[in-house]
Specification:
Blueprint lengths: L4 E6 L6 H15 L3 E8 L7 H9 L10 E4 H9 L3 H18 L2 E5 L11 H12 L2 E7 L5 H18 L3 E9 L1 H9 L10 E5 L2 H4 L3 H8 L2 E4 L11 E4 L4 H4 L7 E6 L3 H10 L10 E5 L6 H8 L7 E3 L4 H8 L11 H14 L2 H8 L9 H14 L3 E4 L5 H12 L4 E5 L2 H10 L8 E3 L7 H12 L6 H8 L2 H10 L5 E4 L5 H12 L9 E7 L4 E5 L9 H17 L5 E5 L10 H16 L4 E6 L1 H5 L1 H7 L11 E3 L3 H15 L2 E8 L5 E3 L6 H44 L1
Parallel strand pairs: 1-4, 1-5, 2-3, 2-4, 5-6, 6-7, 9-10, 10-11, 11-12, 13-14, 13-16, 14-15, 16-23, 18-21, 19-20, 19-21
Antiparallel strand pairs: 8-12, 17-18, 17-22
Helix pairs in contact: 1-14, 1-16, 14-17, 16-28, 17-28, 19-20, 21-22, 23-24
Bound molecules: acetyl coenzyme *A.
């Protein structure tokens, strides 16, 4: 069966179909260039559709909001009351077919189970799916159910789908209590069905609202707090009516304190708990009655850089609390923490390969930026590597680590004082429980690391004292961890300079066999393609020999990340037209690279326009397989490379991922000091993929070495006979 659309619908309210939609969308966007999202019917009386907003922002940025839906529920009611549902289906099909003409795949999400349409909701979803010719994915809620009840529901859903004559693609049971989930997995329940059944356990945090959900629902004013802090999860609500000394005894982790805005005593006591190691971490404070802190109090608070938000509403405490208790959690595109949690849950419990093999989806050969980024995670997850991050004092690192752990992309080691790091992360409302933390100064590894560094560098004049000093530096310690195999890769540079980050690697890890120069590439994510630029960060003025090596390493890096290498050796002249020492260097580098890798598609010297534009290429180098079609661009020196990547980044809005170092025996990567959390996440995932590849190539070479040794041994033995 070849599928170009799927239809997801819940069989009951609160089944959590958005998590399933997101998990499937994530997978599709790694493999298919143009994926559309379509909701046949939305309920506009509740405001803009949240699912459309999330999926558009994350996966379908080119789709307009209007393209993503067919009708409002009011329209459907009208069609139904006029006995004219046929027209509704015909118009829906027209819209859907238009999407199919423009996109390679359409993922549909059915109607919500609410309001008037709830009475025929399931049937209407099945009817729509059948009319669109989409295979049906049923989502069932396992919340607070035992395995017997869940199995019954799975069968009932299958019967309903069968009767509708829709093609039943698969069933997801979501929000299963964890003990029931375990029992069901152990009994291998999934193998009893003719269609794939996926079981996803309940996750407490996904159900809990964030401060941002509460702020939006109550239309609360934000007295203080950053946007990151608004994504703290509210685990429970406490109403502060007692005196301070009694109130303090009730505080728990993740509390939202609701208190009259005139209770300065409670406000101050709550804030004081934030700096006490003996108190749990609050999620936020909600001031009621329209009172906000008076000027002096505000001055005091603003000077403290509070890690939690303070919100304010005009209503009284009683009514506010009643409203807060009805607020449900919302998944939106800005809440990266919850998205990571949801996708991590999906990836852990859904065998995506099995799911999609059933759909026989044709895979795209090009690599769009969305595909590139989404692929990175999947590649990293295939074999979990351990990445060490020495700059644990930086908030961005901690935020990135939480997401990496939630998505189960890598295992993480942080360097620094464990108590300080854990308490800093808890005060930010983050969960980095699964990260290992090593304090270099107190580590039992320190003496061995110091001795190793001294042994490696004493011929360069390093003294034992200087080695001991260097090892207290996070970059050196982390690099040594990678060198000695305690970690598979290192990512640093959010705080340190490029030189400080990579110098230890150059001194300790050194270049991989057959390579003499460490260089770098940037993945330049343009609107519809990803280009590779090298070397824009390390070698100020490479020789022709080094430039040749950089081109070969860059081609290998491109290939490792799914980009077919067609290498342009850039210069200010194309072909044989130009003369001068700089062009000659590029010409010589081209010849060396072609000699070393005769099968590599490589052209040089070539100007940027001839390398990228088919029209210019036709007039300047009509015979070339690279000109007009290059994917890897090698710059003659750091001045040109660094300025060009920044110019393209700033003037075209391209996302530049890198610099990614290449040529080292084991991976170390540098961040820029202005990096965002997303940059750190991408760089760690890239480092993990590099580590996987270096491990497999060293496994291949050691297997080759072993078989060579065995061969030699057996030859030796046969000679002796
Ligand atoms: N490949 C392999 N080994 C190298 C390389 C290289 N490219 N460069 C230096 N080494 C080795 C040296 O051989 C030496 O080894 P040894 O001590 O065992 O003999 C060791 O590394 C240290 O060499 P130095 O030349 O002393 O290294 P130095 O401290 O000068 O700097 C560095 C190396 C940091 C890479 C330097 O070349 C540099 O500063 N490059 C530019 C970085 C930069 O500013 N980039 C732009 C900003 S980044 C951005 O915009 C994203």
């Amino acid at each position: 069966m070849n599928t170009n659309s799927l239809y997801i619908a819940s069989m009951e309210p609160e089944a959590g179909k958005l998590l399933i939609t997101m998990g499937i969308m994530e997978y599709l966007s790694r493999r298919i260039e143009k994926v559309a999202f379509f909701r046949p019917v939305i309920d506009e009386s509740r405001g803009a559709d949240k699912d459309i907003n999330l999926i558009r922002a994350k996966y379908c940025p080119d789709m307009s909001y209007e393209e993503c839906y067919g009708f409002d529920t009011e329209d459907v009611k009208l069609f139904a009351s006029q006995g004219n549902l046929k027209e509704f289906y015909v118009k829906l099909l027209d819209h859907f077919n238009r999407l199919l003409q423009q996109y390679d795949f359409v993922l549909c999400e059915g109607l919500n189970s609410s309001g008037f349409l709830a009475s025929f909701n399931i049937n209407i979803n099945l009817e729509i799916a059948k009319n669109l010719g989409s295979s049906f994915i049923a989502v069932i809620s396992g919340k607070e159910q035992d395995d017997g009840a869940i199995q019954e529901e799975i069968k009932i859903a299958a019967n309903i789908i069968k009767k509708s004559a829709c093609h039943h693609f698969s069933t997801f049971v979501n929000r299963i209590p964890s003990n029931t989930h375990e029992t069901m997995i152990q009994s291998k329940l999934q193998s009893h069905y003719a269609y794939p059944v996926f079981l996803i356990p309940d996750n407490n945090e996904l159900d809990k609202p964030t401060l941002s959900d509460i702020q939006n629902h109550l239309n609360a004013a934000c007295v203080m707090g950053s946007s990151d802090d608004l994504y703290r999860v509210v685990r429970q609500v406490k109403i502060a009516t007692m005196t301070v000394e009694h109130f303090l005894g009730y505080i728990e982790d993740g509390d939202l304190i609701i208190v009259g805005g005139d209770r300065a005593d409670i406000l101050l006591a709550s804030i004081t708990t934030l700096s006490s190691h003996n108190y749990p971490n609050l999620a936020g404070i909600l001031l009621t009655g329209g009172f906000t802190p008076e000027a002096n109090m505000l001055k005091l608070l603003k000077g403290m850089e509070l890690p939690i938000p303070i919100l304010s509403v005009p209503h009284d405490t009683f009514n506010t609390t009643r409203q807060v208790e009805t607020i449900s959690a919302v998944l939106n595109a800005e809440n990266q923490r919850k998205i990571a949690l949801a996708l991590g849950l999906f990836d852990t419990h859904v065998n995506a390969e099995m799911f999609f093999n059933r759909a026989n989806i044709s895979i795209c050969r090009t690599m769009t930026p969305i595909m590139f980024e989404h692929n990175l995670f999947e590649r990293a997850q295939t074999r979990r590597m351990t990445i060490v991050l020495p700059e644990a004092g930086d908030e961005r690192i901690l935020r990135a680590v939480e997401i990496l752990l939630r998505r189960q992309v890598v295992d993480v080691i942080l360097l620094g004082n464990e108590d300080e790091i854990r308490s800093h992360s808890a005060s930010l409302g983050l969960d980095i429980e699964q990260a290992s933390i090593i304090n270099p100064a107190q580590s039992e590894l320190l003496p061995h690391y110091t001795d190793t560094l001294y042994a490696l560098r004493k011929h360069k004049g390093l003294t034992p004292e200087a080695a001991a000093d260097a090892m207290l530096d996070g970059s050196y310690f982390a690099t040594m961890m990678v060198h000695l195999g305690q970690a598979d890769g290192m990512v640093s540079g959010a705080v340190h300079t490029t030189g400080d980050t990579i110098r230890p690697a150059l001194q300790i890890i050194k270049t991989s066999p057959g390579t003499s120069v460490v260089s770098s590439v940037f993945f330049m994510c343009l609107e519809t393609e990803v280009l590779v630029y090298g070397d824009c960060a390390v070698n100020p003025d490479p020789s022709a020999e080094q430039l040749a090596e950089i081109s070969i390493s860059s081609a290998a890096t491109a290939l490792l990340f799914g980009i077919e290498p067609r290498v342009a050796m850039l210069s200010y002249s194309t072909g044989s037209s130009g003369k001068g020492k700089d062009v000659d260097k590029v010409r010589e580098a081209t010849l060396i690279a072609q000699r070393k890798c005769p099968d590599l598609l490589l052209e040089g010297p070539i100007q940027y326009d001839a390398a990228i534009s088919p029209e210019v290429a036709r007039s300047k180098l009509p015979e070339s397989k690279v000109a007009g079609n290059a994917s890897v661009f090698i710059f003659p020196d750091l001045n040109t490379g660094n300025n060009t990547y920044k110019a393209v980044q700033r003037s075209s809005g391209a996302i530049a991922i890198g610099p990614i170092l290449q040529g080292l025996k084991k991976p170390v990567n540098d961040l820029s000091r202005g990096c965002l959390v997303a940059d750190i996440i991408n760089t760690v995932a890239i480092t993990a993929v590099q580590a996987q590849s270096l491990l497999s190539s060293s496994a291949v070479s050691s297997a080759q070495g072993q078989s060579l040794a065995e061969k030699e041994k057996s030859t030796g033995e046969s000679h002796q006979q």
